[in-house]
Specification:
alpha/beta, about 230 residues, about 35% helix, Nucleotidyltransferase, domain 5, 2 domains, globular, five-stranded mixed β-sheet
């Protein structure tokens, strides 16, 4: 089963392509140029593999939470490519992708993912490994750093929110920690492939970003008060 994966939820742009034998990933610091760079990376990966879009089984994308603009770009590109090629789409929570990367890098089976949401908040979710899948113990949410609470048990902490807010690490007593992990397209692809195999693919028109914060902008007064980190 061949899958294309797109991840734009951070300042990094990542695209991956693969099947049961593994995934090849292209990753670059895109800043604000995700929309300009994503299709050239897709074309480069497809050309390198000798595949066409029509030969794929589906497209997975990082659905969020993350950059409001970034997750919309990933969703829109996935929808457009899938619609034109007649493919299914699989939205993958970015925090679950971090859990997948934590398992690969550290063998972690219970992962508390925490990423910097800006505006003095963090995105958090907790996942427990069940075979090769992940069971959500805490659904993705946005909270203040002082409101972060671990579910019962031992948890591996992952994500740049733990670097942005050291007080979370000091209070939560993680069993292990990697604050450098960001959602990778490889993880999106692996989870997307499993989702397709389990029949969780969706029609392009039904694919949506995952928003856990409904307010994405600050007033001038709030910016002046330093609410944005």
């Amino acid at each position: 089963m061949r899958v294309l994966a797109i991840e734009c939820s951070t300042e990094w742009l990542a695209v991956a392509l693969g099947d049961a034998s593994g995934f090849r990933e292209c990753r670059e610091h895109a800043g604000q140029t995700h929309s300009e760079r994503v299709l050239p990376l897709v074309d480069a990966l497809l050309g390198g593999a000798g595949w066409t879009l029509a030969e794929l089984d589906g497209i997975a994308y990082g659905a969020g939470p993350g950059s409001f603009t970034g997750v919309r770009i990933a969703c829109g590109i996935a929808q457009g490519l899938a619609l034109g090629a007649g493919l299914a789409v699989v939205p993958i929570p970015t925090l679950e992708a971090i859990a997948q990367d934590a398992r690969r890098a550290h063998g972690a089976a219970r992962v508390f993912a925490c990423t910097d949401a800006r505006m003095k908040e963090v995105y958090v979710a907790a996942y427990e490994s069940v075979g090769q899948a992940w069971r959500p113990v805490l659904a993705p949410a946005v909270v203040g750093p002082s409101d972060v609470v671990l579910p019962p048990g031992a948890w591996f902490g992952a994500g740049d929110g733990l670097d942005a807010y050291p007080e979370v690490v000091a209070r939560c007593r993680f069993a292990g920690l990697d604050a450098t992990l960001k959602p990778s397209a490889r993880a999106i692809g692996e989870l997307g492939r499993a989702g397709l195999a389990a029949g969780r693919g969706t029609a392009p028109a039904e694919a949506l970003p995952l928003y856990v914060r409904h307010r994405v902008a600050l007033t001038t007064a709030e910016r002046a008060a330093g609410m944005r980190r």
